[in-house]
User: What shape does this take?
Amino acid sequence: MKKSILASLCVCLFVGASAQDLKTKANWFNLDYEQDGVRGMSVEKAYNELLKDRTSKTVIVGVVDSGVDIEHEDLKGKIWVNEGEIPNNGKDDDNNGFVDDINGWDFIGGADGTDVEQEQLEAARLFIKYSELFGENPKKRLLRKYKEEYNTLQKIKSEIAENRKEAEQYLPMYESLKENLTITEEILGDVLGVETFGKSEVEGIDDSKVDLRVRQAKQYWLRMNEMGADLAGINEGIEHFKDQLNFNYNTDINPRAVVGDNPDKLEYGKYGNNEVRGPRALHGTHVSGIIAANRNNELGVKGVANDAKIMVVRTVPGGDERDKDVANAIRYAVDNGAKIINMSFGKPYSPEKGWVDDAIKYAEENDVLLISAAGNDNANVDVETHYPTKYYKKGGEAKNWIGVGASSYEDGLKMVADFSNYGKKSVDVFAPGVAIYSTEPDSKYGEKQGTSMAAPAVTGVAALLKSYFPTLTAVQLKEIILQSSVKLKDQEVILPGGEKEGRFGSLSSTGGLVNAYEAVKMAIELTTEQ
Assistant: This one.
């Protein structure tokens, strides 16, 4: 069963203190189970024991996402530069159809530089489209002709009403939490004589020396801390619910107008702009750091791949991405040299899936590997489809596709992320996706979690392999990553959603966790045989 808005939101908001207290190591996703006691991907072990005497060749990775802060201190030298373009001369110097695309392209921006920041969800867009098609009293002939569309409209009506009601319920709750926690921190700050403090300082307040008001504040703060809640997360929650009401489920707006395109036509190379950061670059910047943050400086985070360049393809707004933009983003990345494409996004409806399918086939024809996040609804995506998907609308499936679920730093029963989608057929493998520390805009760093973090972890491994073993094809990269994954099929785990236990092997086609060390070993064997 899918999570409510609130539960899904908590995937991103409440990483907080509980994760920090329990997490064994920083940079855990790169560490090794035997050496470090945490189920990371053994990236450091691979570099130290297998790759130290080998040379690499730079690989371009397309990041189809919300935008990236290309000036981040830990991504300097890690951003793709289109050498065929002369910056800002207003010309398409390399004749690829895109003017001044120095670091990538923005498919959700207007020619004047204006960006789409917030969008409707696909459900809201379909509601508008199908409401116009059927009107208030559709004729029987129309209903017979468009039976599937009419059924979808009825389903969407219910979804929108339910989710708007939920957002209207939780918004004042979060606002109340903010007010209470703000007052609480002011009280505790006065007692402690500092503006910022942590759990140890609050626990150190002597109850016998303070009044009831302070004791209550202490108790409340510790309870919120135990839940992993803080003001930053609560503020993010408030903004989320406001966005739901004002944009995502609002059927009276047209955010796309600023782009100036025809949303019903592909128009490859005929819309967008070259400003690749955009107004919501947090997600894409975090993803990019996981893949390729500088491993050789003394700054915040070590990316998985040490010789990768990030090609920024801005496609995902607040709300749902459009199929048109996803298809064009994949084509752009392929046409401009990306050999691996990370796709940390998804939605439950794909009205122009044929366009996306054609782009996926185009990537396969050009030997490009696609790596996709499985989604965060603790849903079985063999049953409840999460788009984009490797399965083609007209039958068959992509061979150049890896679907990724999220694992945790914890072992045993808690090995699987509670929020992760799963599927014996649709999800190929699991990778670290909980409490992942990475780059954030304006040269900051922070933790996030989601299959959005697990996918770039795998993308990083694929880029590592491609850079050290450049003859490997997309299909070979996929086969190596899946076959070399650490198989834990019989491990009993708490299944996503947290209601019952089951075998880890039931959640993906491999029953495995991605492991860079084992993947490099297999790549060495395969390329030596060649």
